[in-house]
Design goal:
It is a single chain. By secondary structure, this protein is mainly beta. The protein has a single domain (3-116), classed as Jelly Rolls (Sandwich), CATH 2.60.120.10. The protein contains no helices and twelve strands. A six-stranded mixed sheet has the order 2-1-10-7-12-5, with no helix packed on it. The chain is globular, with a radius of gyration of 15 Å.
Amino acid sequence: METFKVTRVYTGPDGHSCFDTLEYPLTDAGPIGSLSEKVEVGRLIFRKVPPGYDDWHNAPQKQFVVLLNGGVEIETSLGEKRSFEQGEILLMEDTTGKGHRSRNLLAQERTSLFIIF
């Protein structure tokens, strides 16, 4: 079965941020391609991040982050680091606990969409 993969950052039971991979099943919708089931969301925020962005924080709310341009490195509170590029989607759920660090991969402005639950 074809799926759409999203990287999830969440708070584990010990309060540390962790990575996970979610897979949304896709079904054939004919000439328009493959679609997932609907995901209920609430609001949308447009974001521009300055070139030197490097911040330790919790997600302010449960949200998808869609990287429109530029890349980001996410570091969990346990020190695991992963890099994400333009076009990738993250599900940020670590609204409590020790949080995560976000750093621009390049010294350039990065733009993204926050899709809030």
